[in-house]
From TrEMBL:
Swiss-Prot/TrEMBL keywords: Cytoplasm, NADP, RNA-binding
PROSITE patterns: QOR_ZETA_CRYSTAL
Span of domain Enoyl reductase (ER): 7-292
UniProt main location, coarse: cytoplasm
Subcellular location: Cytoplasm
Keyword Cytoplasm: yes
Lineage of the organism: Bacteria, Bacillati, Actinomycetota, Actinomycetes, Kitasatosporales
UniProt-listed PANTHER family: QUINONE OXIDOREDUCTASE
Subunit comment: Homotetramer.
Name used for this protein in its record: Oxidoreductase
Organism for this UniProt entry: Streptomyces daghestanicus
InterPro entries according to UniProt: ADH-like_N, ER, GroES-like_sf, NAD(P)-bd_dom_sf, Quin_OxRdtase/zeta-crystal_CS, Zinc-ADH_QOR/CCCR
SUPFAM superfamilies per UniProt: GroES-like (SSF50129), NAD(P)-binding Rossmann-fold domains (SSF51735)
Amino acid sequence: MSFAEFGGPDVLRVIEAEEPRPGPGRIRVAVRAAGVNPVDWRIREGQKLSARPVELPSGVGLDAAGVVDEIGEGVEGVAVGDHVFGKGIDTYAEYAVLTAWAPMPEGLTFEEAAGYPSVTETALRVLRECEVRPGQTLLVSGASGGVGSAVLQIARDRGVTVIGTAGPANQDYLRGLGALATTYGEGWTERVRRLGRVDAALDLAGSGVIRDLVELTGDPRKVVSIADLGAPGLGVRFSGTAGSVPDALAEAAALVARGKLRIPVERTYPLTGAAAAHIDSRAGHARGRRVIVP
């Protein structure tokens, strides 16, 4: 999957490309599934998300689960044929190079495992950055998507009470993950207040709620956003730089093994359906993850 110009989902094209080769410290996998993340369509639209410019034409995708079929120089602890999940380059493809990986957690399908790398790294990072502690209450705006699903479960495992906002159709889903659930929309801040005091807050949807989150916590330093580029203008941290992906993958695998983390796959798409996947991702209202199956 590739795009030669920035724009809407119609710029995506399935192309025949030369198979990638893993350089030193990297591996190549035969991709069985690739996770769909908001950063994928943000890059495709040409949003400035990092100091490194995107070179056109560009591939798409950062997350994948698959079967190792080639190993770069200096790589140890993995063998051809191993099932792994991780982050890499241009993962909406039949073959992709991974820069960080871990053995696929036992009991997960390829489709499920492909949905974990970016969302678990992001969830662990923002929980660390908002400095919420056991016994405190965390408010999560936009809680039913992949990152929200991970945040709710990890926070609850750490002894944090979680209030989550989502659409009416996802209220039972949030409660099933251990959250106190309420809907967004008119009067939502009062509904949150009735559920309890808020010690820290996360904006995962970019729905224009930063001022409300600051009001509810009483301190912009207690709010972190991964979706609103205007957050720093209100004194709120925008978290967009990944931490240690290998550490996050290892922690995610441990949580899965303990039965403390499970992120459902809401929908799978063929490679030719990548444009539809981006449209759905941009619209939000997810319950778990969306995944490309080449």
